[in-house]
């Protein structure tokens, strides 16, 4: 089931209680943010792999892109996720 489908179907407090309900809402929220960040960043980095070709057994990875040494910062405004790409703050020597 896709995240959007789960959100449309709705989540309610059940026998697991309100804490479980809130944890589930938080997991859905962070899942959306992670998946959106993966979609924005078109490179391989850490455990996140992007493929030029994905036809097992042939798999060509997109290499790490050094120009992508940036942050993707998410904010939630009016119920929607907004994002921007920022340069990391680096110490001045």
Automatic annotation (TrEMBL):
Name under which the protein is recorded: Fumarate reductase/succinate dehydrogenase flavoprotein-like C-terminal domain-containing protein
Organism whose genome encodes this protein: Dictyoglomus thermophilum
Highest taxon of the lineage: Bacteria
Xref: InterPro entries: Fum_R/Succ_DH_flav-like_C_sf (IPR037099), Fum_Rdtase/Succ_DH_flav-like_C (IPR015939)
Span of domain Fumarate reductase/succinate dehydrogenase flavoprotein-like C-terminal: 20-85
GO molecular function: oxidoreductase activity
